[in-house]
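User: My collaborator sent over this chain with a note saying "see what the structure looks like." That's all I know about it. Can you take a look?
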Amino acid sequence: MSTPTRFVAFGDNHGDMVDDQATDALCEFIKDYKPTVRVHLGDCFDFRSLRRGVGNDAEGAESLMSDIQSGEEFLARTKPTVYLMGNHEHRATALQHTSGSAIVRDYCADLEARIKTAAKSCGAKTILPYHAEKGVYRLGPVAFVHGYAYGLNATAEQGKHYADRGGALIHGHTHTLSQVNLTKAEGGAAFSAGCLCQKEAMAYASHRLATSRWGSGFAAGWVDGNDWKVWLVHKVGKSWIWQTDLRIFTPKTK
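Assistant: Without extra context I'll predict from the sequence alone. Here is the result:
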């Protein structure tokens, strides 16, 4: 076995709704594990005042400046090498085509450009759109997406769709921490990487039953040819616990 490529996958920090303690844990893990591939799974920004259906309420009147600055600070700290646009970033993209206001369209075009510039300046070599086909990043047998399904079966559904035979999928979007062994030819597994935002701060999601299943965390692992390993890192009580040393043993053939 050659030297494995180490990676970490994280996301859903949602701009100014970021969980600073969870971010501290992620940064400490990155320092310990030293992954060469760092995948941001999307929703680095929240853009709640741009969401569909927002009206003349408190959220609709919010400035985006704090949200944007917090998201950019997160990128500067975590330095992703791959950036996958999430459905929240896509709000700015969608309004460029649907808004009846030229000012809004122009602002959202500038906003999208600012996001990409910030990601590139922090080291992102690959930036993919929020798109069910074009938004897939692959590192050998491990696929990464923001997420295009929701509900109890979202991880299994997306795993069957995106994971190669015997491979893996890691996604964000649902904010849950879970692993599903896939019932498909040659197996495989899918992982939901949790989130790095404050659940209690996201008032617009407080009425959803799924919100109670959210969990703080991220995914990490390694790839070596067709071999791979993925695990979830999350809080245990009030602390974060992980293992970062890789010991690889290959028995000698007799």
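A starting point for your reply to your collaborator: The chain has a mean pLDDT of 91.
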